[in-house]
Amino acid sequence: MPRISRASALVGVGLAAVIVTTGIAASPADAVVHSTEGSAPSAITSMWAWGNPIDPATDARGRGQAEFEPAALVAFAQAHGLHSVYLSVPWAANQGAFAVWLPEAVSALHAAGIEVSALGGDASWASQPALAAQWVSDALATAPFDAVQFDVEPWAGVPDADLGTIVTQYTAMLDAATTAAGDVPIGVDLPWWLAVKPVGSGTAFGAIVAHAQSVAIVAFADHAAGSDGIVALASPAVSEAAAANLPFTVGVETDTPAVAGGAQYTFGDDSAAALETETALVRSAFGATTGYRGVTVEHLSAWRTLLGQ
């Protein structure tokens, strides 16, 4: 499955992520008060989970990752007090072994009181909305997901991308997906810099989130403070999300520097303690903002490695 780009040719920096989801908690306070294995309350409330436990010998889409077995997913989410999991869903999810694993995983997480969003996307979907709608239909026919989270990046690797055209295409894609999803809310992963790119009478970010019920503001960094820190990068998008009354979480990276595009964009070469310390500062900055729902970690397997698991 595609993932949020760690660098953008448009801005020459790593992206920072804020996930906005609906219904994670009744209030900002509910979203952030939990503890991690007996430690002080953590700001982390959710995670991206890219992968699956399917044997690649039986399905080419399989990754064979044991941490994605339903019981393992639940155990990890509960150990870290998570409210929500963004679980990657492949194309044609209602076929093969995925048609068995996905409903089992979603049901297990639901039984533990954890919400689950179908996570996926491809850059081509922006210009082919019927593909996005088909993916949504198949995903929701496979398992009782609480929401759909799109990770679609038509701007990635495109110098001087025409954001006006992209926004028009992207919003058409979201509209098609909304029709296919019915009452299931649609969320998007969007890079922070879209909130400082003018399109029409507003910004690219604002134009896109007007067609979604939640947003992921992508602004990866390994520190909260400073002009290149998580708080400064995410702030314009957070302000727009709050103005639109959209719930959100601020996302951070834990993959390797090689994957992230540089050590400054990830906690992968730092420590689990640093992750907790810096995300607590993010909570301090945004915790009172309308719609704030905590911090989201990118991603399950990398986070486990950071924790030494």
Low-confidence stretches: 1-38
Structural class, judged by helices and strands? Answer: alpha/beta
What is the CATH superfamily? Glycosidases
**Terminal CA distance:** 23 Å
Describe what you observe in this structure.
The two termini are 23 Å apart. The protein has one domain: Alpha-Beta Barrel (TIM Barrel). Mean pLDDT is 89; it is low at 1-38. The radius of gyration is 18 Å and the shape is globular. α4 runs parallel beside α5. The strands form two sheets. The chain has a nine-stranded mixed β-sheet. A two-stranded antiparallel ribbon has the order 7-8. It is α/β, with parallel strands linked by helices. The chain has ten helices and eleven strands. It has helices at residues 28-32, 70-79, 98-111, 129-142, 163-181, 204-209, 230-243, 257-260, 272-286, 300-306, and strands spanning 17-19, 44-49, 84-88, 115-120, 147-150, 186-191, 198-199, 202-203, 214-218, 248-253, 292-298.
What labels describe this entry?
globular; TIM Barrel; 11 strands; 10 helices; alpha/beta; 309 residues; two-stranded antiparallel ribbon
